[in-house]
Design a protein that fits this description.
Blueprint lengths: L20 E7 L2 H13 L4 E4 L1 H6 L7 E6 L3 H13 L15 H39 L10
Antiparallel strand pairs: 1-3, 2-3
């Protein structure tokens, strides 16, 4: 096995020219994709990832970062991919609050309370603005005179 110290992922030119490349997994984030590719490379399975720049710049939520290998390496890559999938530390595809402690919960509550206060102030401001606009409209149309109650 040749070890390459290149930054970019690539396949060695020693393989067949028309060899079939398959996608074995899609990711939402670049870090797990790079981890899977590195672990495959440790096992001697060449791989590369695609769409990192596009998905990072425009996160469309479709998990478009692909991990690609040669079709001939599929059977040997599958057990490693299953192992990585079952390891919770390597799979941050969803947010879980199961490991949150009391400090984390208190912090989230304080953020929620701040948002509620901002929302209440915004609603109050919009109501006052609406009343001022209604009053201006009523005065301009002659419905309301200076001595009226509003």
């Amino acid at each position: 096995m040749k070890v390459h110290n290149e930054l970019l992922d690539y396949f060695d030119p020693e393989g067949e020219v028309n060899e079939k490349i398959i996608t074995v997994k899609y990711f939402y984030f670049e870090a797990p994709a790079r981890l899977y590719a590195a672990r495959l490379r440790q096992q001697g399975i060449q791989s590369f990832i695609t769409n990192v720049n596009t998905i990072t710049a425009f996160p469309l939520g479709d998990g478009g970062i692909g991990l690609h290998i040669r079709e001939r390496d599929y059977e040997s890559a599958l057990p490693l991919i299953y192992e990585l999938d079952n390891n919770s530390k390597t799979r941050p595809t969803h947010i879980s609050f199961h490991d949150a402690d009391h400090e984390d919960i208190a912090f989230e509550k304080s953020l929620s309370e701040q948002e509620n206060k901002k929302d209440a102030l915004l609603i109050l401001f919009l109501i006052l603005l609406g009343l001022i606009l209604i009053r201006a409209f009523m005065r301009s149309s002659g419905i309301l005179l200076n001595g009226d109650f509003f």
